[in-house]
Amino acid sequence: MRRTILDAVRSTWFAGAALLAGCAGTVNAPYPPIRADLSPAALERGAAIFHASCESCHRGGDAETAAGAPLRELPSYMGRFHAANLTAHAEAGIGAMKDEELARAIRYSVSRDGRLMVMPSYGMGDADLAAVLGFMRSGHPLFTPTAEPAPPSKFSFFGGIGFRFITGNEPVERPASGIPVPPKSASREYGHYMAHDVYDCASCHTDGFSPRKTEGDDVFAGGMAFVDPEGRKVHSSNITFHETGLANWTLEDFTRAVRDGLAPDGSVLRSPMPRFRGMDDVEAQALYDYLRSVPTKKNAVKDARPRLTATSVRPQWVTQEAGEDAAETVQQEGTATGEDAQAALAPGDPTTSSPPTSTVAIPSPSAQPDSQASSAISHPPAPDTARPSATPARPNPSAPASSATSQAGGAPSASEQPVSPTPAPRQSAHASATPSPSDTTHAAGPKPVTRKPAPKPRPQTPAVDAAALFTKFGCASCHAPGARYHDRLAKVATRSEADLVRWVRNPEQFLPGTPMPTYAELIDEKTARALVRWVKAGGPNTLTSQGR
């Protein structure tokens, strides 16, 4: 009996070793004859795809280049994995790689040495693939040569066995060339293309690791296991339009969530969900209509949020800026550059900052504001209140950082400067004491002086608990003591308040690939300014530590 058990264990180990060796073996995958497209339109398209689908894995949160990063969102039992260095360095990066080698890695998930990788494979059309290659060859700052090579990825014993069984150590079957890009339109066909082949929604929102899982009945039903940046296990949401998924989500809800990272209730979408900043309204409509056409699937994924009903109340989204507030901010704080704001949130040695004050004028989530300009999230409308469908103009996330910075940090125009009212002319004492003969004909005394009506008093913004606001908007998960980006706040105290306000509301203007949500429709400028003042005073240091 003992010999039988030992023989079985030995056979299992030998079989596992053979399968693991198979994982390390090379595979047969063709080289797509695709060349980088460096035309302006292609660079813009390639930037939008790269920022949405590639940057979150290949650029670490503390890095300025796509030099690779640990893939912590994959379960640890599978092994240790690291995204490749995509900078232009000839040895550590992709500088010496041919276009067809890069195209094979993207289309088949096969490395330069011919091994199958854990990254998704993308079935995007030839033109879109050429656009991505063009952006990677464009000299964008993301690809500034970085000499440090990415550590090799290593499967665990059981992770290697599982990967070998699931994939068969064979790349996905698709043609090397000749894949068309559907005409861009708000059609289900184009939505299918974006969801499966460009943004890869299907792979993340379908459970399992099989490359053919998106062909089954559970596609888009969620449940795929990930690990968030704080080490917590999370599962992808059900994005079919079942009651346990996206039922009762409007197009506006969907667009804001996917593009800005904010759910319909104002909460922040969970990591590792990326932000598709470059998605325009046509793509949003196509994706939305396509997902609505997918058969619904009941799957109440734990901790996925939010599930809406027909009467769910949305926040009162900010749709119009108070020009007076904007002018006041610029007048008080000047026109510091966007580069200063980006540097303020970049990693660095902590510096001493002032202790937080006990009272801060910040709109409270629980307070009832008296004006439209107060905190949007603190005063939700009634369920039947009509919400505006228009959204503010968005910057082009594919534009270089210097362009976005100049837009965000430039000096105000003449129309934005506050204008002082002209005072009413005063009547001299001599004139009132000695009236002219013509005045004697008036029986009512001195001539009345026309005065401008006094301005109406502005409603007072209620004070708010800054710590509650900071936590409610999801800032604490990244910037509280012990969180991965807490040290970045050390330089905030010396930076321009005006630029930090812009960063809080529209971080994508400074860093297009940032995972930080766009709060411009949730936090008005006055609220953002008060929150910035609390942060500059060291308020986050008083919060409970977020253990890694």
Spatial order of strands in the largest sheet = 1-2
Into which percentage range does the β-strand content fall?
Answer: under 5%
Query: What is the β-strand count?
Result: 4
Shape: globular
Q: What's the quaternary structure here?
A: single chain
Return residue spans where pLDDT drops below 50 for at least 5 consecutive residues: 8-23, 319-444
The number of helical segments is: 18
What is the arithmetic mean of pLDDT?
74
The largest pleated sheet is described as: 2 strands, antiparallel
Structural class: mainly alpha
Helix content: 25-40%
Task: State the separation between the terminal residues, measured CA to CA.
Answer: 47 Å
Structural description of this entry:
By secondary structure, this protein is an all-alpha fold. It contains 18 helices and 4 strands. The strands form 2 sheets. A two-stranded antiparallel ribbon has the order 1-2. It starts with a helix and ends in a 12-residue tail after the last helix. About 26% of the residues have low confidence.
